[in-house]
Design a protein that fits this description.
It comes from Oryza meyeriana var. granulata. The protein is α/β, with parallel strands linked by helices and 183 residues long. The chain is built from 6 helices and 5 strands; from the N terminus they run E-H-E-H-E-H-E-H-E-H-H. The protein is 28% helix and 14% strand.
């Protein structure tokens, strides 16, 4: 699809209902791609995402902004839980990570923590977690955040509050929680 665009810097694959495969084989694309978004792609199977995380993501070390959805985070956790020897992506250039959460359950929070602990991202400055809008009530999130949160090494993270007003003071992740700020 993008073979004729080796200098492509931004690739967004959003709501591609019939997309069944993602392959980034063009060497120039791997080197130049800075922003990658994959979300709302229900036809991508678990196996496709597994192969993508193992084979493609490690090659995209120049990506500065990465947007993934909660379904993708489930794949990362399943790879780690199964003891798979997936090569850990070197996301040295990553400055912004956007997580689109279609639902937020205890396993989803666990998947976020697994992703943050699994991937090298020393230059991460901005973590955006888009919360679901279809929650029955703000209290749904309260029980999820009572567990002790692991140290994530997010010392360079700048925290901004972008959430529904009724959830203010309830959703905190990583170093933001320790600093008493909301994410």
């Amino acid at each position: 699809m993008v073979k004729l665009c080796p200098g492509l810097r931004i690739l967004e694959l959003l709501y591609c209902c019939h997309l069944t495969e993602i392959t980034i084989a063009q060497p120039g694309l791997k080197r130049n791609l800075r922003r990658l978004t994959v979300a709302g792609t229900p036809a991508l199977s678990h196996q496709v995402f597994e192969e993508w995380f193992r084979n493609t993501l490690p090659l995209l070390s120049n990506v500065t902004v990465l947007t993934i959805c909660s379904n993708t985070l489930q794949i990362v956790s399943s790879l780690r839980d199964a003891g798979a020897n997936a090569e850990v992506a070197n996301l040295q250039s990553l400055r912004e990570l956007q997580l689109l959460m279609f639902e937020l359950t205890a396993p989803d929070l666990g998947n976020i923590f697994v992703f943050l602990k699994s991937y090298q991202r020393p230059n991460l400055r901005k973590l955006v977690v888009q919360l679901p809008t279809n929650s029955a009530s703000p209290e749904d999130f309260l029980g999820l955040l009572q567990e002790e949160q692991p140290e994530l090494g997010l010392d360079n993270l700048e925290v901004e509050a972008h959430q529904r007003p009724e959830l203010a003071d309830t959703v905190q992740l990583g170093s933001a929680a320790q600093a008493g700020q909301t994410t």
